[in-house]
Write a structure and sequence with these properties.
homodimer, UDP-galactose 4-epimerase, domain 1, Rossmann fold, seven-stranded parallel beta sheet, alpha/beta
Amino acid sequence: MKSILITGISGFVGGHYTRFLLNTKKDVIIHGISRSKPVWDFIKDRKKNLNSIHFYKFDLLDSTPLNRFMKDIQPDYILHLAALSSVAESWRTPVDSFCNNTTAFLNIVEAARNENPDCKILSVGSSEVYGIVKNEDLPIPETYRLSPSNPYAAARLSQEYLAHIYAKGYNLNICCARSFNHIGPGQKDHFVVSSIAKQFADISVNGKNPVINIGEGSIIRDFLDVEDVIVAYNAIFEKGLSGETYNVCSGKGYSILDIVNSLSEITLIKITIEQQKDLIRPVDNPVIIGNNHKIIEQTGWKPTIPFKATLKKIFHYWCKHV
Amino acid sequence: MKSILITGISGFVGGHYTRFLLNTKKDVIIHGISRSKPVWDFIKDRKKNLNSIHFYKFDLLDSTPLNRFMKDIQPDYILHLAALSSVAESWRTPVDSFCNNTTAFLNIVEAARNENPDCKILSVGSSEVYGIVKNEDLPIPETYRLSPSNPYAAARLSQEYLAHIYAKGYNLNICCARSFNHIGPGQKDHFVVSSIAKQFADISVNGKNPVINIGEGSIIRDFLDVEDVIVAYNAIFEKGLSGETYNVCSGKGYSILDIVNSLSEITLIKITIEQQKDLIRPVDNPVIIGNNHKIIEQTGWKPTIPFKATLKKIFHYWCKHV
């Protein structure tokens, strides 16, 4: 019987990862930490599996309960998802964003170092660490120079450096993921794809004006279905090498306008687009597309879900939730 | 009349920078922040100048008094020196070391952003951000890849990234220094050159056994006299470009054994060397030597004090203080 600790279990990826474990791993005990109680639709349907989930409500910024918890629970795996993951919010509150993200991570690895040094840790980070990327360098491999251009990205890169230092200096078993944008049902609507799909659902379900508000429409990102993301994380737990960092991405890029146009095709709704100045960030990356050769070669993982299939799922999710 | 805020004014570099200002800039008001009252020998001799120094005792981790202070004082320049600067200590208390260093810096730049956005800031960092360096790449230029290998170095690199983000994203005027080892009279004896010079003074003044305790003797560092360091900081304030990072270094390397042998020659004391295992760090850089062409070209600064002259000054300092 193996056990896993998932920080930020109540979040978007935490929910999907938990469902993945319940569906595929009958012999895993799940310990979830979060500041808020999870609200997952799927929990209702799966009563018999729920005995394997243990939920703990506390703040990762407080190291005392975390150390006690780590000593008691001794998880075999730690998936560190908990984060303040909004770039826009990090521009508004840079100190809170940076300090909370780095301190939560440090408290986790420090508790592991002191109380549970043999566990395997996956530190989830972000493609934002690459910063402004030249078109001719796309798709970006892990060896590309790092140049975080917002407070959130700086925290994520610090987390990576600290992970490597804990792996080499303290001999912990830690892998890092550089996750590119991931999308799927249940993601909050301050993330761009959710925001756009929700606006389409509002038009479709509530008859709102067919106007879609976006920030900078030309921005291109590498969007990966959250179901592919969690299989990638599982592959890194199984086959990732300690001290290594893996891009988790599709290898393909879509612009914000592509998303709007695809959803317009999927929903058969003709819309007009309005650009909102307050959605444009002070410094932003025009294009990010990742190179996923390393994770494919080292773990055998690969993305499987087509982009439009994901957009359709997200739209249907919002049709039930607007 | 210009004013400067110096954080960590009670420290080694803070004291030397203050003396430099008192000696060379008659029209500068100095505001110093520190957690502890400064104890400077030179203060006794220079009563007439001391009206231009204002000392404030508070903790940079507490942003409230800092914001109020920044609003009231409106310094033209900010020299951010305050730091927990021991690599060895950062391995013992990685969370405190990382969080205190990054939070103190963030609180300073955030206070500047909110209350005093036109000031010029010098963020003092460290050559430790380069990590393990290949011999064939020495001396290291600023463009060398960054790879911090201890918790202190990770904090210093985070500070640099945050400085660049505040410069570009919030339009603050910030330069960064990557300071290599600096040495001089008054530096605490947990730093290697001070430790060795103090041991020589103990032998010379107190007749202790002629045994010098060191860690790894083959480690090579780029040591710069603190008097050269402060002139470099002043040059960056005067001519440094916002968003730029400058190596502050001598361009020459000396090993720990070189220091012991030079002090043995200077003092005419024959010693034996004992290696202390607890002085050896978990992961360490065998050699660091910096390339100082950028600061020389952009500001006209250059190092002026020979290495042995500096060692002599430090030995004489310790002869008065053991």
